[in-house]
Design brief:
About 55% of the residues lie in helices and about 5% in strands. By secondary structure, it is mainly alpha-helical. The strands form two sheets. Strands 1-4 form a two-stranded antiparallel sheet. The chain has a two-stranded antiparallel sheet with strand order 2-3. A hairpin with a 5-residue loop joins strand 2 and strand 3. The C terminus is likely disordered.
Length: about 210
């Protein structure tokens, strides 16, 4: 999701091939034997297999609202550390919480508690300013939002009643944005020989 949001925001147009992971097409595996998504194949044949690399590529081409930190604003290292923690320990806690039946050593509430330390960190940041790293949206927000969304929707009633009022507002702003709504459009599973699908089909606003 975060790669699609960055692509849509930047104005980049790509040929979209929607895949079902349980039926991984040979064409994708030929490009990226890892068998994970997203994958972006550039015109020169270079293959980007990580969503963060795809985000960086999209924003390098066009970043109208300056999501990426400038060389002199001192935010680069801060954003990297925050997103690194999201992609490592918080994602692990999320996976265990979301699929707790696969990890019967502990109840779901235990795994939820493992992720709450990170939620508290985000809440504290949002108590200080409108976005995670300042008064404007940055690549940190766009990179972390999809994971907080997943965490929240494991048990939305619990999340809505938890002591994270600023995080709840931040999440809801994303959920209601034109940018998010645009990338959530459903596409049919791609098969060899299908007509070309361009993404995004219609430009989305950050909202």
């Amino acid at each position: 999701m975060r790669a699609r949001m960055a692509i849509s925001y930047s104005g980049l147009t790509v040929a979209l091939r929607e895949v079902v992971l349980r039926q991984m097409p040979a064409e994708l595996l030929a490009c990226s034997p890892k068998g994970t998504v997203p994958v972006l194949v550039l015109p020169d044949g270079q293959v980007l297999e990580e969503s963060r690399d795809i985000i960086d590529r999209a924003l390098a081409g066009n970043d109208p609202e300056q999501w990426q930190p400038g060389p002199d604003d001192g935010l680069g290292a801060e954003i990297k550390c925050l997103v690194d923690e999201n992609d490592a320990s918080f994602k692990e806690a999320l996976d265990h919480y979301k699929y707790a039946e696969r990890y019967p050593q502990h109840p779901a509430e235990y795994y939820r508690s493992q992720g709450e330390g990170y939620l508290r960190q985000l809440e504290q940041r949002l108590e200080q300013h409108a976005w995670l790293c300042g008064e404007r949206m940055s690549v940190a927000d766009i990179s972390i939002f999809p994971f907080v969304r997943q965490f929240a929707f494991v048990d939305k009633a619990w999340f809505d009643g938890a002591a994270y009022p600023q995080l709840q507002v931040w999440l809801n702003n994303f959920l209601q944005s034109d940018l998010f709504q645009g990338v959530m459009r459903k596409y049919p599973q791609w098969r060899e020989g299908d007509a070309l699908t361009l993404f995004p089909g219609e430009r989305n606003k950050t909202g």
